[in-house]
């Protein structure tokens, strides 16, 4: 790097990138799942019920029953290398490390479970990172995901005497880089199917409807992503919301009821994409790929394809590299 004459040469600051995802249990067993669910479902950003009312339900009912059922579901998608979400998060970080080389120190962390956000930031700081970009890998902003990931980053810095400088990656639901990565990823997979789907469903994780009424932009972000992806692919898409939890009204239409209804409307061949998930996980592989498929086929469907998420595909790594480089402008020499 050349510097204008008269300016003393200062060492380049070390820049760190922290990729953040939701988290997953350490093992597909009820004990590990209970530990994970207890942390996840105790987050007031996730369950917005006053703790005095929620705690007895969580500890008295949910944590007594759900871990065993969820562990069975995790068992069906667990791999030799671990939980799919953890495996893919590791691969995404590895791929970006290769892309950025010595320019950026790439780490990843989970909001719940391991590796944790606080530990990752402490590692980065002790490694000498004085500037950190925290990148929650949620394309659509939601208080239950983006905000709580950022909260955990801010809380870690709040306890430090010498803080690194910090940036956060904004939501990227309508970023042309994201839409183009989805277009390429979905088009490639549709082209490789041995049938022509009559309908392309795009299923996003659901949220309580009340969060939309309170002003969370998540629902609008999902709708815009879906519209832009449909336009980019040149075909219509149908938006649904999955993973309903509890008794309150959630965003609609629900993925499971749509899957049960489509064959009766004459739609027998479908493909389903889940563009809100940056990595395949329990919610895509088990809820859509196993239970969703069963629901559709039992209702009279004939062909069903679950498309992979962006994961560590070349288009995903290109997208992340370019989006992150843009956020790091001024911090890192562009190549
Ligand atoms: C009130 C409950 C939940 C809200 C709100 C919620 C929002 C939300 N979640 C994701 C992404 C993921 N959720 C995952 C699993 C999962 N989600 C909930 C509940 C809520 N999610 C539970 C209880 C679970 C655990 C599994 C189960 O018991 O059903 C996952 C997968 C994790 C994995 O280990 O693979 C992801 C990813 C988003 C994006 C979101 C709001 C937009
Ligand atoms: Fe969830
Ligand atoms: Fe689920």
TrEMBL record:
<keyword id="KW-0627">Porphyrin biosynthesis</keyword>
<dbReference type="InterPro" id="IPR019772">
    <property type="entry name" value="Ferrochelatase_AS"/>
</dbReference>
<keyword id="KW-0456">Lyase</keyword>
<keyword id="KW-0963">Cytoplasm</keyword>
<comment type="similarity">
    <text>Belongs to the ferrochelatase family.</text>
</comment>
<keyword id="KW-0479">Metal-binding</keyword>
<comment type="function">
    <text>Catalyzes the ferrous insertion into protoporphyrin IX.</text>
</comment>
<dbReference type="InterPro" id="IPR033659">
    <property type="entry name" value="Ferrochelatase_N"/>
</dbReference>
<comment type="pathway">
    <text>Porphyrin-containing compound metabolism; protoheme biosynthesis; protoheme from protoporphyrin-IX: step 1/1.</text>
</comment>
<keyword id="KW-0350">Heme biosynthesis</keyword>
<protein>
    <recommendedName>
        <fullName>Ferrochelatase</fullName>
        <ecNumber>4.98.1.1</ecNumber>
    </recommendedName>
</protein>
<dbReference type="Pfam" id="PF00762">
    <property type="entry name" value="Ferrochelatase"/>
</dbReference>
<feature type="binding site">
    <location>
        <position position="283"/>
    </location>
    <ligand>
        <name>Fe(2+)</name>
    </ligand>
</feature>
<keyword id="KW-0408">Iron</keyword>
<dbReference type="InterPro" id="IPR033644">
    <property type="entry name" value="Ferrochelatase_C"/>
</dbReference>
<feature type="binding site">
    <location>
        <position position="205"/>
    </location>
    <ligand>
        <name>Fe(2+)</name>
    </ligand>
</feature>
<dbReference type="InterPro" id="IPR001015">
    <property type="entry name" value="Ferrochelatase"/>
</dbReference>
């Amino acid at each position: 790097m050349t510097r204008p004459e008269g300016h003393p040469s200062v060492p380049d600051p070390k820049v760190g990138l922290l990729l953040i995802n939701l988290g997953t249990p350490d093992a597909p067993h009820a004990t590990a799942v209970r530990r994970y669910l207890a942390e996840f479902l105790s987050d007031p950003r996730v369950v917005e019920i006053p703790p005095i009312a929620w705690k007895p339900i969580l500890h008295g009912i949910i944590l007594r029953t759900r871990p065993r059922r969820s562990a069975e579901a995790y068992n069906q998608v667990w791999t030799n290398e671990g939980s799919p979400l953890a495996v893919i998060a590791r691969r995404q970080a590895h791929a970006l490390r290769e892309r950025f080389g010595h320019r950026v120190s790439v780490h990843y962390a989970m909001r719940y479970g391991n590796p944790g956000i606080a530990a990752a930031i402490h590692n980065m700081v002790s490694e000498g990172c004085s500037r950190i970009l925290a990148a929650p890998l949620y394309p659509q902003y939601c208080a239950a995901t983006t905000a709580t990931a950022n909260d955990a980053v801010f809380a870690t810095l709040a306890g430090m005497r010498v803080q690194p400088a910090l940036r956060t990656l904004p939501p990227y639901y309508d970023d042309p880089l994201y839409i183009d990565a989805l277009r390429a990823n979905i088009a490639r997979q549709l082209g490789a199917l041995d049938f022509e789907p009559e309908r392309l469903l795009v299923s996003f994780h659901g949220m309580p409807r009340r969060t939309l009424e309170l002003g969370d932009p998540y629902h609008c972000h999902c709708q815009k992503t879906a519209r832009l992806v449909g336009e980019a692919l040149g075909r219509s898409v149908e938006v649904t919301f999955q993973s309903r939890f509890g008794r309150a009204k959630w965003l609609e239409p629900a993925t499971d009821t749509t899957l049960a209804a489509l064959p009766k409307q004459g739609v027998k061949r479908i493909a389903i994409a889940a563009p809100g998930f940056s990595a395949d996980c329990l919610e895509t592989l088990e809820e859509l790929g196993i239970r969703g498929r069963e629901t559709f086929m039992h209702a009279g469907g004939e062909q069903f394809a679950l498309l992979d998420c962006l994961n560590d595909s070349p288009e995903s790594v290109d997208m992340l590299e370019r989006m992150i480089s843009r956020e790091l402008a001024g911090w890192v020499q562009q190549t």
